[in-house]
């Protein structure tokens, strides 16, 4: 008579649970390996291409108005032209948003001006022109004093600042958003020796870009 090896229902249920558990582990391992492979590929492409940050330069600045109404309310109108350059040979740049304003002696003297989003091809450059204005903008009491000092010296130091977000594009892959900050410093003739009309600087100035 052959021996009947019959296992209890409890034992069979336990074995079935073990098999399901192994199947899930295999799926999780496969999925994790796939995700890690994709991330490793993206990192490898990133390291090989090593995109350089965009370059900005202030091509021209014209101050048409910079006057106080009352003791602390400033009216300003400044036209600027920025040049943005993509130095990369294989990486394009999406600029999602750029906010630009002017500053003097650490004080904001215009409101923000927005540049619409745009895409910049590899090794390409764009001219960005805008007018920065303010009407009745509150400034520190020292503003008038600082302006008087610079008028005696004969020059005015203006800062043009911008910030925004960008994305790198490699082939069909587009990166996440990165914040960038740009700071441009330009010196304009000021005072009695300055030519008539708007204060103008056409010498240009390189800008510091931080990503």
TrEMBL record:
<dbReference type="GO" id="GO:0009506">
    <property type="term" value="C:plasmodesma"/>
</dbReference>
<keyword id="KW-0472">Membrane</keyword>
<dbReference type="GO" id="GO:0098542">
    <property type="term" value="P:defense response to other organism"/>
</dbReference>
<protein>
    <recommendedName>
        <fullName>Late embryogenesis abundant protein LEA-2 subgroup domain-containing protein</fullName>
    </recommendedName>
</protein>
<keyword id="KW-0812">Transmembrane</keyword>
<dbReference type="Pfam" id="PF03168">
    <property type="entry name" value="LEA_2"/>
</dbReference>
<feature type="domain" description="Late embryogenesis abundant protein LEA-2 subgroup">
    <location>
        <begin position="84"/>
        <end position="174"/>
    </location>
</feature>
<keyword id="KW-1133">Transmembrane helix</keyword>
<dbReference type="InterPro" id="IPR004864">
    <property type="entry name" value="LEA_2"/>
</dbReference>
<dbReference type="InterPro" id="IPR044839">
    <property type="entry name" value="NDR1-like"/>
</dbReference>
<feature type="transmembrane region" description="Helical">
    <location>
        <begin position="27"/>
        <end position="49"/>
    </location>
</feature>
<dbReference type="GO" id="GO:0005886">
    <property type="term" value="C:plasma membrane"/>
</dbReference>
């Amino acid at each position: 008579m052959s021996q009947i090896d019959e296992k209890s229902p409890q034992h069979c249920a336990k074995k079935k649970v073990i098999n399901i558990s192994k199947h899930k582990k295999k799926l999780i391992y496969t999925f994790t390996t796939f995700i890690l492979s994709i991330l490793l590929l993206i990192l490898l492409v990133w390291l090989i291409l090593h995109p350089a940050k965009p370059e900005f330069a202030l091509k021209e600045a014209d101050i048409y108005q910079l006057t106080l109404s009352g003791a602390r309310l400033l009216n300003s109108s400044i036209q600027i032209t920025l040049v943005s350059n993509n130095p990369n040979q294989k990486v394009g740049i999406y600029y999602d948003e750029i906010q630009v304003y002017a500053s003097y002696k650490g004080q904001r003297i215009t409101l923000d001006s927005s540049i619409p989003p745009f895409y910049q091809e590899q090794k390409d450059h764009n001219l960005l022109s805008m007018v920065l204005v303010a009407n009745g903008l509150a400034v520190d009491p020292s503003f008038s004093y600082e302006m008087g000092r610079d008028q005696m010296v004969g020059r005015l130091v203006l800062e043009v600042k911008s910030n925004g977000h960008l994305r790198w594009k490699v082939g069909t892959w587009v990166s996440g958003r990165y914040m960038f900050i740009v700071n441009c410093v330009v010196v304009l003739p000021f005072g009695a020796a300055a030519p008539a009309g708007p204060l103008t600087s056409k010498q240009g100035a390189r800008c510091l870009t931080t990503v």
